Amino acid sequence: DAVITLDHVSKTYEGGVHALDDVSLTVERGSFLAVMGPSGSGKSTLMHCAAALDVPTSGTVLIDGRDTRSLNETKRTEMRRDLVGFVFQAYNLVPSLSVADNITLPLRLAGREADPAWVDSLVERVGLAGRVDHRPAELSGGQQQRAAIARALVTRPSVVFADEPTGALDLRTARGVLKLFREVAEDLGQTIVMVTHDPAVAAQADTVVVMADGHIVQTVTEPDAADLA
Ligand code: ADP
Ligand code: ADP
Asked: DSSP assignment, residue 68?
């Protein structure tokens, strides 16, 4: 069962840069995919197309069977709200809101009720039960990213996209946060697509695709950090 399907996807930006060149990729439901590759290889463009933040110049992107190119901007925004969660390098928590309100914000934006038992279990899973009334600035980097992970999961999206989720953390904290992210996702049957340049981080995924010059040049299953370096 594929959550995301890219079929012969190309993306050419104004100015003529071919950021993606005939990329095909399937992301299975419940799997954890990492995207690696040098700067400028097309990782962000791939993620933006796969997350319906952008549309390809040619080819097809299906999220849960829905064609992103058949939708206008408004419908694509709705689609993201329903189907997609995001984790960013810089956490992107709202400074003025409590941890609890940050985590439930996507529900409010979607006009959905927060089920308290679900929110509590999520807060518990990410180890922030004692911190829900704190502001983000009162948390460590690792805790802020764990709050951001809970926020990405709170709507039970079809897929969570993570862009260098451990890029702002020290090595030890990064390891812990990523392990937790993977375990929570596994528990919930959650699909993750993560962009990273760090082989040790990518090696946590089930599958790693390596990009170069707008192409997928390698697909590694059961990755090993040493093979990816
Ligand atoms: P990566 O995430 O691997 O660094 P990107 O997808 O950001 O790669 O970029 C791929 C190529 O597309 C690069 O040559 C980059 O300069 C170009 N590019 C990215 N975004 C834009 C844009 N909005 N307009 C024009 N060119 C872009
Ligand atoms: P983590 O491994 O989750 O990142 P740390 O080891 O960095 O946690 O933080 C240890 C403790 O210090 C945590 O309980 C955290 O709440 C507290 N702490 C870290 N940074 C801050 C801060 N800026 N303000 C208040 N407390 C903080």
From this structure: G
Parallel/antiparallel/unpaired status of strands 58-63 and 66-67: antiparallel
**Rounded to 10 degrees, what is the CA torsion of 211, 147, 92, 85?**
50
Q: Quick one: which ligand is closest to 135's CA?
A: 2
CA distance 36 to 82: 27
Which of 143, 145, 173, 179 to probe ligand 2 with, by most ligand atoms within 8 A of CB? 143
How far is 141 from 91, CA to CA, in rounded Å?
A: 9
CA distance 50 to 154: 20
CA separation for the pair 48, 13 (Å, rounded): 13
Secondary structure (DSSP) of 169-206 = S-HHHHHHHHHHHHHHHHHHT-EEEEE-S-HHHHTTSS
Identity at 50, one-letter amino acid code: A
Residues 16-35: tens digit of each pLDDT = 999 999 999 999 999 999 99
CA of 33 to the centre of ligand 1 (A): 21
- Whole-structure pTM value: 0.89
